[in-house]
Write a structure and sequence with these properties.
about 280 residues, alpha+beta, 2 domains, 6-stranded antiparallel β-sheet, 5-stranded antiparallel β-sheet, about 25% helix, about 20% strand
Length: about 280
């Protein structure tokens, strides 16, 4: 398989990532809101995703502002750090803000101050995103020093998913990241883009407390199509699609092979047809 896969589950169980995931989701909302100030609309002329994952930097990044600077959420060395700067291989002077010990309001203000001179309009930044309930919303502080292993494991899941999705990406697709579903997925772009399959990795949600690979159809499947992958299951509550939960992946010797086969086979399914 392609070089770059990082072994999963050796230090922490997938179901133990839930608390860390919620912390990171709250921090990521300020990266997304900064991205909205950089480029509010995703159009055919501007198909760049609001949020991307960069494996080389172990971080989420916003779209760039006109001056080339971006807001990021770095998950390096088991720490979660907000960043602001040009974010390229030659840049060594990123401004950073370590989240541990700070409140979410302090994180919000730090990002807001960084983008002041780069954003032409910060109106989109003002309202926080709708996220699951968490003590952070009530003024609690980020307690991430005890989550170092989980932060590293989440970064590995994201980089592995990016690796597999990159191998499947077509010329009319980009790899996007979603704050609401905390996922990384393939997204079709262009004027002729039609509803179809949605493939990606969610870091967990109300349905599954652990990361899971998925394939959905737009419009949704009413009944499960024929699918021979024995590791996955068909999910029907609130959404319909095939999922491969991380607990089934981490116990395998060939994790990359099993995950890649699921996504490759899933990409060949027929999407549901409009009535």
């Amino acid at each position: 398989m392609t070089a770059g896969w990082q072994q999963l589950g050796s230090t922490i169980s997938p179901v133990e990532l839930q608390d860390t995931r919620l912390y990171l989701q709250y921090a990521l909302q300020w990266v997304e809101r900064a991205a909205l100030c950089a480029s509010p609309e995703l159009t055919d002329d501007n198909p760049q995703p609001l949020l991307t994952w960069r494996p080389a930097e172990n971080g989420f990044f916003s779209q760039p502002f006109a001056d080339g600077k971006r807001v990021g959420l770095l998950l390096e060395d088991g720490e979660a750090t907000l960043s602001f700067g040009a974010s390229n291989e030659k840049q060594t002077s990123l401004q950073t803000f370590a989240l541990n010990g700070h409140t979410d309001a302090e994180a919000r203000l730090w990002v807001r101050e960084q983008i002041e001179d780069s954003a032409t309009d910060t109106t989109e930044y003002n309202d926080p995103s709708s996220l699951p309930q968490h003590p952070l919303a009530e003024g609690a502080r980020y307690k991430l020093s005890e989550h170092r292993e989980s932060i590293g494991e989440i970064a590995r899941w994201l980089s592995n998913a990016h690796l597999l999705l990159s191998a499947l990406k077509q010329k009319d697709e980009h790899i996007h990241c979603s704050l609401e579903h905390f996922s990384i997925y393939l997204y079709k772009i262009g004027k002729d883009a039609k509803p179809g399959l949605n493939l990606g990795l969610s870091l967990g949600d109300l349905h599954y407390p652990q990361p899971y690979f998925y394939v959905l159809s737009e419009p949704p499947w009413q009944n499960a199509p024929s699918f021979s992958n024995e590791l996955c299951s068909f999910h029907k509550k609130d959404f319909s699609g095939f999922v491969l939960v991380s607990e089934k992946v981490v116990h395998l010797q060939e994790q990359e092979k099993a995950s890649a086969e699921f996504l490759q086979e899933a990409s060949k399914l027929q999407p549901s047809k409009l009535d």
